[in-house]
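Project outcomes to date are best conveyed with an example. Our students and postdoctoral researchers have been running inverse folding experiments weekly, and each run begins with a structure described purely in tokens. The record below, which covers 227 residues, was selected by the lab manager from last quarter's runs and is presented without edits.
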């Protein structure tokens, strides 16, 4: 089935059921915005310049710093005209869209069902902790406070107390790999879910929340104290 055929019926139906798209755009403003857009589009189609380089040079949107990329978004998050084309255009096609902000060259770069936080049972967590090879493949994050960690802890976890996110946030996002399987834990599972959801919004792809937190793990492993 070709992408052009899919886009007419199937893709529209999928997107209506909660699909997200990732798109890039170049925003032109002013009385000659339409002419500017047409000229730049001609250069892109003629392989004189890449879409990303054109966005960096010409776009009047802050996204120019990222080559025009807007990241992932769902229906209703953009102004109506932009939203409509974003969820109807073929992947890779460049469309001209006029909105209240100006004239856009819009390219839809991909589509997906929104990622969700996986719920990890403590039995699965124990399997990972007991397997050195599996440990190498995961990032283990404990968001509890330091005084809680002193009462009960799993040494394989790195502690990033949620209340101190302002202090470690910049370093965390510079050093952690969003493509790596990430497991987040707290006392009972509520605080860790907050960070897990935030990581998904920041582009993390495989985020797991420990169901019941360390309290549930301690019920299975008597070597870990309950508090």
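After processing, the design step wrote out the following sequence:
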């Amino acid at each position: 089935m070709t992408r052009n055929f899919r886009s007419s019926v199937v893709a529209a139906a999928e997107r209506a059921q909660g699909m997200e798209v990732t798109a890039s755009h170049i925003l032109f403003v002013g009385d000659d915005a339409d002419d500017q857009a047409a000229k730049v589009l001609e250069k892109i189609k003629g392989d004189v310049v890449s879409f990303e380089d054109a966005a960096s040079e010409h776009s009047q949107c802050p996204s120019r710093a990222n080559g025009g990329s807007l990241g992932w978004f769902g229906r209703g998050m953009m102004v109506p005209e932009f939203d409509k084309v974003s969820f109807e255009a073929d992947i890779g096609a460049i469309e001209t869209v006029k909105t209240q902000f100006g004239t856009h060259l819009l390219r839809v770069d991909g589509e997906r069902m929104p990622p969700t936080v996986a719920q990890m049972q403590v039995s699965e967590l124990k399997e990972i902790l007991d397997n050195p090879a599996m440990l190498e493949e995961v990032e283990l994050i404990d968001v509890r406070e330091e005084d809680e960690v002193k009462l009960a802890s799993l040494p394989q976890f790195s502690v990033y107390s949620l209340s101190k996110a302002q202090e470690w946030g910049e370093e965390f996002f510079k050093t952690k790999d969003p493509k790596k399987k990430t497991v987040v834990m707290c006392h009972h599972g509520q605080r860790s879910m907050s960070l897990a959801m935030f990581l998904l919004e920041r582009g993390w792809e495989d985020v797991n929340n420990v169901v019941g937190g360390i309290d549930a793990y301690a019920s299975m492993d008597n070597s870990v104290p309950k508090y």
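DSSP finds eleven helices and nine strands in the chain. The radius of gyration is 23 Å. The training component of this project remains on track.
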